[in-house]
Amino acid sequence: MKEVELTCSATAKEPSALRLVLTLGIAGLISGFILVFVYQYTAPIIAANKAKALREAVFKVVPNSAYLQELHYKDGELVRVADESGGEKVQPGEILYGAYGPDSGFMGYAIVGSGNGFQDTIRLLYGYDPVQRAVLGMHILDSKETPGLGDKIYKDADFVSQFSPVLVDPSVELVKGGRKADNQIDAITGATISSDAVVKIINNAHQKWDDKTKGAPPKFVPPPPPKEKEKDGNE
Amino acid sequence: MIKKPMQLLLQTSPFLRRGITTPRLMSEVVIATIPVIFAACWYFGLSALLLIFASVAGAMLTEWFFTPKKSSTQPSNSLLDGSGLLTGILLGLTLPPGMAMWMAFLGGVVGISIGKLVMGGLGQNMFNPALVGRAFLQAAFPTAITTWNPPATSPGSLESFTAIRESNLAAPFMQSSTDAVTTASPLGLMKFEHEPTPWFDLFIGNTAGSLGETCAIVIIVMGVIMAIRRDFDWRIPVSILLAVAAFSAIPWFIKPELYPTPLGMLLSGGLLFGAVYMATDPVTSPVTPKGAWIFGASIGLLVVLIRLWGGLPEGVMYAILLMNAATPLIERIAQPRVFGRGRSAV
Amino acid sequence: MSATKSYSEEFLKGIWKENPVFIQVLGMCPMLAVTNTAVNAIAMGVATAFVLLGSSILVSLLRKVIAKPVRISTYIVIIATFVTVADYSIEAFSPALHRELGAFIALIVVNCLILGRQEAYSSKNTVGFAIVDASGMAIGFAFALFCLGATREILGFGTFFGSPIFGEHFEPWVIMALPPGGFLMLGFILLFFNWLEQRKKGAAV
Predict the structure, then answer these.
(1) Cα nearest neighbour of C170 on chain B
(2) Cβ B85 vs Cβ B59: under 8 Å
(3) Cβ neighbours of residue B186 closer than 8 Å, sequence gap 6 or more
């Protein structure tokens, strides 16, 4: 040990500033090259994974649907986001998804809502049928609820299945001890706050989108052929 | 020419002592819990004894396991001073009657090991060991510890005494059976349904709740006796109760249909039990009179805040634990002024 | 000093005698945050091992090139590169795992275990020794994560690697699945290892 320190102090002249800059610069350069390479390789896979997860979630909350397109509200009607791509960027919070059956017929909307849960923000996706005025299904996208209690909002199949369907008029209502009407949800025992959060999120999101989804839904426009092929390949 | 060596005895104060020792204090408090245990058996039957037995067993076994056995310097009297026994009894009395025995046992183990022994044993612990055990159980089994069974329909009769709740006997690590009759505690009723419980039921203990907390009258009587015998500082329970009454009166005056009456707040839940048996633990509460007032009033304020605006219906346990942690700070600001010196000379 | 070193000793010291968690108490953030199941713990252990091994090799190779006053920043750049590579790869190949581990993959970069090994070992030793040291430390770290993750999963969920071991009536200890359970369990495990150590010392006397 002593020997090492001695040699160190003998050779340790103050390195020049240029050397310092070069060391860091080269390290940064190498690092940058590696990262660009890895990013280029993984980015499409990550994007495909995300799209696939979103598609699966939408198809889950709108039963029997097979296609989706991103929609947003503009000038009194819902329009495809893709049509607008030339113009300004649409905020993620202003997007909802139109879900269409295998015959391209409109099945319902999938709407993202979020709000405070027991621990942290809960993000969920729910399917909505403007004709029946009912929620078709609910899927939790993101939550940090207590394992074993609050996480039953997505692990408890009995709770989740209550949302398919549940009526939204006058509003979705949380009850205890069994649902008695078509607009009621039975709370999870021991996780009332989390159950309440889910119901509140849906009610709030519904209020926001209710008027905007009253008009005729936009037609499904099949994406251009090459994209369709890629989609099939991933499924 | 026998020269006797001169002896000079140097002693510091105190020169006058009450003949009070740890074992004696502990046994007095243990005796003071007997009427409460009796009340628990009256309303909840044999389940009360089973749960208290389990938590005492957990506490005592842990105490025994970690006590140095063949140490010559220190006689192993921590088992015999009764503090482990008291922790076990107090923990058992704070559990709901339908709790599984293995959970009560685990609570005793955790209370003694984490609450007391890892801190250095009796006198070194920062938190009340029984409440540490209960806090652990609350965090580990939130459903089981908030599942209340109603009291017996004919309290005191032999058949309701011997009717053991099946959920008490759940095998270790297994769930207690869920089909037992459950109900809401008075605090839960008030908080979520805004439905007050008649005060007389609260007073005699004919409500759902933890084993030892329901019967107000017994706790009040025992509290008065212990205060007269100076087993604890009377200022602590008195200041807690006064603070709860005062702070809960304000929202009640503003919106009486939404908030419980101060009397209901005082009599329901674990407030009396906590104020008399838990907060007065001499190790974890301040020693100075001024400190005792601050300590008690802060607990009362916290209880009101948690009960009325917190997520849980009951907050006595957390209020006491929080103020346990603040005790050293309270001692600092509540130092009596040394005679003849200025205010800053501490 | 280098004459007396043997590869096997340098390798084994990280697993037991100088275990990064049990003895050095390093890297507590991932230790407490992501060890609620055995799978998460092992995934974290593997990701950390990849970063530790990669950066140790690179630092050891470049130890004569790196100028001393900027060595810490250079180590961090190297470590951050490997962390980002690990982050992207996990996100691409196992989105579910990435969701579980979340921000804690990116936080490997501030794991003091990794920077500590660069400063204390790789920058002073040959590549061979650096590899051996890094693998020993990585295995020791992963072992500790696994101990904690397995106990927390068994008590908190009643499962081991996702398969139930107590039957359907198991009552989960909710606290074990939450961060306080991590603190408690880590405390117990440290207690246990200290007790073992003391017993060994007692036996030697």
Answers:
(1) B174
(2) yes
(3) B196, B197, B202, B207, B208, B209, B264, B268, B269
Q: What is the pLDDT, as a whole number, of residue B298?
A: 95
- Give tens-digit pLDDT for C46-90: 999 999 999 999 999 988 888 888 889 999 999 999 999 999 999
**Percent of chain A as helix, strand, coil, to the nearest 5:** 45, 25, 35
* Amino acid letter for position B340: G
Backbone phi, psi, residue A4, to 5°: -60, -45
**Which among A106, A109, A73 has a CA at the least distance from the CA of A91?**
A73
Residue A4 lies in a domain: no
Question: What domain count does chain A have?
Answer: 1
Please report whether residue A120 resides in a domain.
yes
In this prediction the ipTM stands at 0.82
Q: Is residue A42, in this structure, part of any structural domain at all?
A: no
Tell me the domains of chain B and their CATH numbers. Answer: 23-67+80-165+182-333 (1.10.3430)
Residue C123's contacts (CB-CB under 8 Å, 6 or more residues apart) are: C59, C60, C63, C66, C71, C75
Q: How far apart are CA B59 and CA B61, in angstroms?
A: 6
Longest Cα pair distance anywhere in chain B, in angstroms? Answer: 92
| CB-CB contact of B24 with B80 (8 Å) | no
| pLDDT of res. A82 | 65
The runs of H, that is alpha helices, within chain A are 2-11, 17-61, 152-155, 157-161, 192-209, 225-234
- State the Cα–Cα distance between residues B214 and B94, nearest whole angstrom: 10
Contacts of B98 in chain C (CB under 8 A): none
Q: Which of C179, C173, C175, C143 is nearest to C158 (CA)?
A: C173
Chain A interface, best mutation among C2, C59, C64, C66, by max A CB count within 10 A? C66
The answer for A 184-203 residues in CB contact with B (under 8 A) is 189-190, 192-193
Q: Could you tell me the residue range of the domain that residue A162 belongs to? A: 48-225
How many other CB atoms are found less than 10 A from the CB of residue B64? Answer: 14
